[in-house]
Give the backbone structure.
Amino acid sequence: MAEQEKEIGTVVHWYDKIGVAVIKLAGPLKVGERIKVRRGDTEFEETVASLQLDYKPVEAGKKGQEVAVKLASQAKDGARVFKVE
C-alpha cells in the first residue's frame, strides 16, 4: 500500500542551536506519529519524539496551535509538514 500524505502544518521558525522547529498546525499531531518535512528539493521523514506547547511537554497538538518539535535534520522556515500514514 502506498503511503498517504496529509499536510498538517508549516514550519514558522527553526532554532538551529537546539534543533527545534516551531510548526503552525493545520491539523492534529501526536507524539509517535511519522511526519515528512519538505522544502523545495529537500525532504526527510521522522517520528515525532516530543511536542511542546508554551514550553510545556504535551502529547498532542491541535489545528491552529504552534508546537515545538525536536528534529534530527534541519527544517527551514516555510517548510511544509505532512503526516505519513
